[in-house]
Structure formats: structure tokens, C-alpha cells
UniProtKB/TrEMBL annotation:
<keyword id="KW-0479">Metal-binding</keyword>
<dbReference type="InterPro" id="IPR010255">
    <property type="entry name" value="Haem_peroxidase_sf"/>
</dbReference>
<dbReference type="Pfam" id="PF03098">
    <property type="entry name" value="An_peroxidase"/>
</dbReference>
<feature type="binding site" description="axial binding residue">
    <location>
        <position position="391"/>
    </location>
    <ligand>
        <name>heme b</name>
    </ligand>
</feature>
<dbReference type="GO" id="GO:0006633">
    <property type="term" value="P:fatty acid biosynthetic process"/>
</dbReference>
<keyword id="KW-0275">Fatty acid biosynthesis</keyword>
<dbReference type="GO" id="GO:0006979">
    <property type="term" value="P:response to oxidative stress"/>
</dbReference>
<keyword id="KW-0575">Peroxidase</keyword>
<keyword id="KW-0560">Oxidoreductase</keyword>
<keyword id="KW-0408">Iron</keyword>
<dbReference type="InterPro" id="IPR034815">
    <property type="entry name" value="A_dioxygenase"/>
</dbReference>
<dbReference type="GO" id="GO:0046872">
    <property type="term" value="F:metal ion binding"/>
</dbReference>
<dbReference type="GO" id="GO:0031408">
    <property type="term" value="P:oxylipin biosynthetic process"/>
</dbReference>
<dbReference type="GO" id="GO:0020037">
    <property type="term" value="F:heme binding"/>
</dbReference>
<keyword id="KW-0349">Heme</keyword>
<dbReference type="InterPro" id="IPR019791">
    <property type="entry name" value="Haem_peroxidase_animal"/>
</dbReference>
<keyword id="KW-0276">Fatty acid metabolism</keyword>
Amino acid sequence: MGFSLNFVHPQLKPIVAKMSFFDAFLFYIIHWMDKYEVWHRLPVLLGVAYLGIRRHLHQRYNLLHVGDIKGRKYDTDEYCYRTADGKCNHPSDDRIGSQGTFFSRNMPPSNLPYELLEPHPSVVAAKLLARKEFIDNGKQFNLIACSWIQFMIHDWIDHMEDTQQVEIRAPDNIADACPLKSFKFLKTKQVPTNTTAGWPSKGNNFLMNNTGSLNTRTPWWDGSVIYGNNKEGMERIRSFKDGKLRISDKDGLLEHDEKGIPISGDVRNCWAGFSLLQALFVKEHNTVCDMLMVHYPEFDDEKLYQHARLVTSAVIAKIHTIDWTVELLKTDTLVAGMRINWYGFLGKRIKDMFGHFCGPIFSGLVGLKAPRDHGIPYSLTEEFVSVYRMHSLLPDKLQLRDTNSSSMDECPPITQEMAMREMIGKEGEKRLSEIGMEKMMVSMGHQASGALTLWNYPSWMRNLVAHDIDGEDRPDPVDMAALEIYRDRERGVARYNEFRRNLLMIPISKWEDLTDDVEVIEALHDVYEDDIEKLDLLVGLHAEKKIKGFAISETAFFIFLLIASRRLEADRFFTTNFNSRTYTEKGLEWVNKTESLRDVIGRHYPEMTRKWMKSSSAFSVWDSSPTPTNCIPLYLRPAP
């Protein structure tokens, strides 16, 4: 681009100069709106248009592939189901998106001159993250929504670790404020990328890095959190009868092995709320099997399992897209935008009647004729991992409710408070068995989660015994707040201001650009002095002024905007193979009729939703009023 306009921020001009004429023109539109902070105050459809433009630019300039592609072509008709390890999803390369492939990136690794311990992670954790008192987020998000994040993370991402340990020692001047004066953990394993040849990519989008990190989970939306990430994990949870998964007949919760570890697809770092959601969707899978047996009696165990997995995985993806995300980003624009992602501008009714036609704008990403990866092989990114660091949502105590209360008009009374430390790992599994599925679900539904803000990181997570991949306790406790700061730096994730520039956002020039809170500004100055470039991403995301209705920062949201669409449009089981031939007619009908987690809970516990859930969504606090949608075009509104 040979010219630029004077109103473009000086630090963004080098990026704009490399854009095509058309992309630069689109950038000028969103940059003008960013300068005046107006996009989220626009009428719904104009706000959606802004997000569409921004997503297009991120698809062009914020998808960078890491590593060689060494897969093979295969017959997609032979693999008309999801494989155990994520292989055979991409239509021309069987390895793309499988377990053990590289994390990609949304921007180049950070090139700032700071050291790994600058400033010291323990200082950042103690002075800016550590919880002073619990701050909740009101009625917007409950503990089910909080647990859902972990449920999804365990479906998508986990870094392979090295065998070499690192030790972090808190400086003497801050040690007394740290629950652990020192702690040890395993480094992230850096693997040679052997980048010698280019995938058919766009310009510089093939990142010539010497090393990268491997994902030990499958990044597809394939339900691996309950099905496992490989053949061994899959076989562990299958009953091999009628296509069903193992679950306790006694209490409807997960079964456990002789060590007390739950039997499920992913058991690392589990807590009772996470196990609860795993059990709920095992029940969903098994109920889908029952439905399929009625309509397709000729199906054997394998066919029932594979079709039920397709259906259940799609239900999970749909709930996250049009239910969980719109509660996280509670604005009319995002309600419309996420439903457009799934159904298109013409809405559910038209898509149900006529199917997918006229492309993604009118009919959504789900049901496209072919997957779209924008020239970059699908995987999840290092930056996506970083913006999903949301442990501040967790409270210090779980409030148990009296589900035997006869009142239908009031929130069930609190009968007991349990320390969250007692709800993790094997001890948490025992507690959950004592509490029971229904009481736990109702209790979590009525308890607000924490707010994603500074000074709200759970104290109990700063002295946490983490788990190995098999669910066993590790020998050394860790300070998760300090560790998360270290992990971003170790993996080369950009710090806050560099991150914003790479996302075509206006960088901050002083602390007052980030927040109006005087106390926060003083604390930031204490830790980072006047060097705004040194600000860690996690701290910046938590300190940033939030858009009304957003539980997360705008900066984090723009990564969500890109990746939420990519998870759907790159997956052939949500595009080419999202049809009755692959899912069965009744299986596809099951997905199409399920609109929310409320639907799933109501399917298995109808009395629970009838008696206790007043809210529109199972992810908002259950005694909150239904959400009005008057400003959303009628054809895009959720069903009442």
C-alpha cells in the first residue's frame, strides 16, 4: 500500500503498509471506529459488520503456521467419523489437527528485549494478581459457566512438557507475600519444527521458527474431553455395549479406577465441577445411543458409538457458540453475531427449512460445502491459550444449596460452604459422590463466578498440587499465578502492548489509557515503572477497561473472534460432512433441536430446570431474570 492516512496510529503504519489496497481500506474503517470506541455502541447489524471486517483482517494477517506438514491424503468416505486421535479430519492431509501436532500462532513470537524473570513472576503475582477479597461478576456468569471453560480447554489444548525442571524462587522482598517461597515445574518442551517446505500459504504466513510446542490434546471440537485423545483413552471409557460410555448406574456420575481417579477422556487437573460436566455429557452420549437404537436397530456397537460421538460433539460446539459465548459477551451484537456464525444472517428458521445455501454470510459456517482454513493448516494457537487464562473466575468456597426446599420462587438456601481446595482431585471426587449430581448442579447454577480483574486470583491456586496426564498428583505444588506469567514469556507470547499492535489495535501510551483506577495505576507503576511495553499480557487483560456486558477484555475477545469461527469452518464434520448421511437424519435433528445447555440439563433432569432455573441460560445465575432481546432482529433472536 503506497499511502496511509494521517489518522492511522504511527505504530500501526508499518503493518498497514504491507496490506493490499482493499484490506487497507477495511482497516481504515475499523481503525476509525476504534479511535472513537464506538463499534459496540452501534446498531446490532452495523456492529456485526464491524466484527466481520475485523475477522477478515485477522484471517489474513493473524494466522501463522508452525512446522512442516507430513501427512498423507486419504479417502474421506472411508473415515466418515471422528478418529480417536484427531487424524483424518482435514480433507487432504490426515495429520492436520491431530494429537501431537504443533501449536500455531496469531502473531510472531515476541521480540522485546526483556528477560524471563523481568519483572519477577512472583512479584507480579503477589502485587497485581493475588486475591485480596473475592470479587464476583454479579448475575452474568455462574460456576457452571466457569467449569465449562475447563471442560473446553481439556477438549482442545495442553502443552507437551519437557523432562527438565525449572525452579522459581520468590525474591526476599516479596517472599512473605507468597504461599510458596519457591516451586518447581517442568519446562514447556521445545521441538524442532524442521520447516523446509511451505504449505500453500499466503506470503509470510508460514512462520520460519526453529522450534515450536506440541499439543498433547486434539484441537478439533471433537469431544475428546469425554472421549479421549487417542485409542487407549477411547477404549478406557467405552463400555463396548450399545455404543455407550461408562458411567455409574448408582448416582449418574463418572466411574473411578482403583486409585479413585475418574474414568473419562481427560482427567488431568480435574475438580468436582469439571467432572460434573463430563458426567452430564456422558449421559447425553448414552441417551443419543438409545435414540439411535430405536430408529436404526441394525446399527452395531461401533456405529452407535461413532454416530453418538458426532452428535454429542456437535451439541457441545453449538452450546459453546450460541449459549456460553453470548453469556460471556452479553451484548445484543454478540448474540446476533454468534447465531450468524451457526445459522447465518437468514436465521435458524430459514436454514431449517431450506438447508445451507448462498454461503456463510446467509447460512452460517456450519454446513459449508468444504472446510475453509484460509491457506493455513488448522491448529490452535499459543495466543489463544494465553487469553483463556481465566482462573480468577474460581471462588474460594463452593456454596452448597438445599435442593429439598419446597419453595419455587426463591433461591434455595445455602446449607454449607466447602473450601475449593477440598473439591479438587481425588478428594473432590469423593465429595462430589457425597453431594450428588443434582445438588451440585443446582448449587453451581446459583453461585456467581469471580470477575476477571486484578487482585482476584484464587489464593488456593497459589499453592496447588497439579496432576500428571493420568490424574495422579505431582510431587511439587506450584504457584499458578506466577507460573502463568512465566509460561507466556517462556512460549514467546507477546506482552500486552505488542499483542495489541499485532491485532491491529491501538496500543496504550500511558497507564491511564488502560484503566481509570488510580490504585491499579499506582500498582502497575510499582511493578513495571513507566515501561508500558514490559506489561505482561495476563495483567493487561485483567486491568483493561471492559466493554459493558463483556466479562473479558476487548483484546482477548478479538482472538476469540478469529478462533471461534475457525474451529467451525476448518472442521469437515461441521462443514462438508455436517449432513444426514454422516450424522444420520435423526442425529442431525437432535443437534438442530438443541439450542442450549438448558436443553441438555432439562433432557436429563427436567424437574431441576422447571423448579430452579429462572434464567434464560444455564450459564447465568439461575435466579436472574430472563435476558431481553428486543434490539436484535427478530429472525436472529434465540427461541424463547
